[in-house]
Design a protein that fits this description.
The structure holds two protein chains of two kinds.
Chain A lengths: L40 H15 L2 H20 L6 H4 L4 H14 L14 H21 L6 H10 L2 H13 L6 H26 L8 H20 L8
Helix pairs in contact in A: 4-5, 4-6, 4-7, 5-6, 5-9, 7-8, 7-9, 8-9
Chain B lengths: L14 H7 L20 H5 L14 H11 L7 H5 L6 H12 L7 H6 L6 H25 L13 H31 L8 H11 L3 H7 L5 H27 L4 H26 L16 H10 L1
Helix pairs in contact in B: 7-8, 7-9, 7-10, 8-9, 11-12
Classes of the chains: A mainly alpha, B mainly alpha.
Chain lengths: 239, 307
Amino acid sequence: MAETVDVPGDSGTGSPRPLFAGLSDISISQDIPVEGEITIPMRSQIREFDSSTLNESVQNTIVRDLKAVGKKFMHVLYPRKSNTLLRDWDLWGPLILCVTLALMLQRGSVDSEKDGGPQFAEVFVIVWFGAITITLNSKLLGGNISFFQSLCVLGYCILPLTVAMLVCRLVLFAEPGPINFTVRLFVVIIMFVWSIVASTAFLADSQPPNRKALAVYPVFLFYFVISWMILTFTPQTQG
Amino acid sequence: MATVDDLQFEEFGDATTSLVATPDATTIRIEDPDETPKHPPAPPRSSRREEDDELLGNDDSDKTELLAGQKKSSPFWTFEYYQTFFDVDTYQVFDRIKGSLLPIPGKNFVRLYIRSNPDLYGPFWICATLVFAIAISGNLSNFLIHLGEKTYHYVPEFRKVSIAATIIYSYAWLVPLALWGFLMWRNSKVMNIVSYSFLEIVCVYGYSLFIYIPTAILWIIPQKAVRWILVTVALGISGSVLAMTFWPAVREDNRRIALATIVTIVLLHMLLSVGCLAYFFDAPEMDHLPAATVVTPNQTVAAAKSS
């Protein structure tokens, strides 16, 4: 209403005025702009992004997802302290790795020996339920990692062991014997250590400091069991 | 409007003096942080004349009551409820494992180590480790025993893992359940001073199984004498932990029932270890004495000779 801003307290005269007495006299002049547009600069970008992924070709989607998976593989193979696995978690990589491992580890056919190696379903169940149990354990101990992030890390860190499985498969084409076994043992041990180092590099920070060992031990057990399954794999074509 | 006098700080005086004035008032005592239970002051207390005196602990009885009340506050369908069972630190788990390996007569495992904070971490992961230790060691031992036999083809025997898991987990959960039910029933008939909650019993059983992990690994050695010595030692240690834990709980009862309970506990434990040894580990007497085998004479000898 009034044209000037009345500044309280500029009187400087002697009488003490009660605080905030001048507030009721303040009015906004028309020189100060208080209208305008309130826009969130990100919003238009997000809308563009959404519609673009809906409309893009299937090939683009698959290639983009594969690139994300491949990038995470690289992070596992060269474990540094980075947040990529945790921030953009996905479960494609663990699924691919688990299926590959289970396919290679399963025993041949139904009519083979009764007490042989694991079936496809057994490997699958061990990997996924093992990962879920470890995740629940770390959350119950008070870790601040989310459920799927932890599953993602544990699944991706099976990559070294899958590589070990491939190497063992190739080595088994050579003649069996103690040298054969020693080579396989050596490869599996190295990959086992690599898996543990990679997963603790990602997971250890999310635990409270006085419970780190409690949270890391189940990871050790998990990868040990998988390594054991890889090491004791015997193909069906023998004897 | 508040006057100036109303804003003066009012002295409440010392706690003791005000208690004299109003004896019913509640007081709060803040302890020195150095006294928090990092080093539980149990040893001097339990070596007193009667350990039943500190049934729930004289001065920490209200503390344990308070803690018990605080712990069970979340309803059982929330996640926080289950987090209270994993409220242990690394050093606590190690202490409990150490306590199960070194049973000291007169010291009660539950009273000394668990102290109203039973955890499920120890029992669960010790049982998981034991399952895999038994399965893997059994497999390895069979491989070493039959090494060199022409007719033996190594198989990983993966099915035994599931069998081992069933046996160990049902032992670790069903036997404490039965024991707890039995103790509750006796408690209703005879007033026992010491009683344990279900989780404390599960905890004791879980930690007492820890000794079997190195035992299972050492069972790989294919010597019968070694294996039976290991069985005896392991049974002695874990059996004594269990016996010393449960003796105060049945002591007040009829002598025969008390003895029968303790004997049954130890017997079941022995059954578990001997059963696992017999099922997962082949007998080592089959390791090859080439010409001396009497039972299956011709086939193996002929096969060995012809190859």
